[in-house]
Amino acid sequence: MGKIAYIFPGQGSQYVGMGYDFYREFSEASDVFHSAEVALRYNLTDIIFKGPEDELNKTINTQPALLTVSLAIYAVLKANGLPKADFVAGHSLGEYTALAVVGGVELFEAVRLAYLRGKYMQEAVPEGVGAMVAVLKLSPEKVEEACRLASDVGVVEPANYNSPEQVVISGERQAVEKASQIVKEMGGKVISLKVSVPSHCSLMKPAADAFRLKLAQTPIKNIDLPLVQNYTAKAHTMAHEIRENLYRQIFSSVRWYQSLQYMAEQGVDTFVEIGPKNVLSKLVVQTLPHARVMNVEKVEDVEKVIKALR
Question: Which CATH superfamily is domain 130-195 in?
């Protein structure tokens, strides 16, 4: 067997009730949920388990919620003998989960950063002004061209390079709608995303600048296990590089499939998604069809995945 990477999901994977079976059955998981509530000083667990969905889908809640659930699942896996990974990575918000897993930031600080990141992103663009659309069946180069052609009416940029088959665009609603029309004329397919902010485009620069001070004040440590970051699609272990890339990630494209390709080039042939749903697992399959892919979302996945990794 080659090398192993643990990968952690970002926004879009959340749903009401996620992680409840871990919370109910494992003290390692419930401890993570309780620590997150202490860090935030509000009842995040209630929002995660009971909703309502609209409340959970607010970026300010979604980000700490996803981080908490993924870390709770990881804590259970670790307690049950999960082998050490060779690389970790996370999609957008998931990068903070990955950093916490390898000891680059403490749980308390990671939850606070996720909350503040969501807060500043939510405040940067009024709801309804921005939009995000997933583009399918079109090459990344053609999607970039569509964005350029639509930029005369406003900001529209590639936000997530999810796989060679899927790129998400983000920006001002009017420009995103024009780019979507161009995409259709090019033979692509578009799916509107239910989001409250247009992430990973230049509209998020004010959010990133506000967040930068919080990042500077947060103790981030050098790490031994490499973190493949969205901004560079390369591995980093030095705290000053990690901090800078977290800042830039907010208003830059998530280079996800490039990150997967980079890990494959380093010898990774097994990817384990840890957290709600299996969105990233599907993107791995689209990008690296020969990779071994598994995900841990439910309690029954724990034993099965650990056994497969031994």
Answer: Malonyl-CoA ACP transacylase, ACP-binding (3.30.70.250)
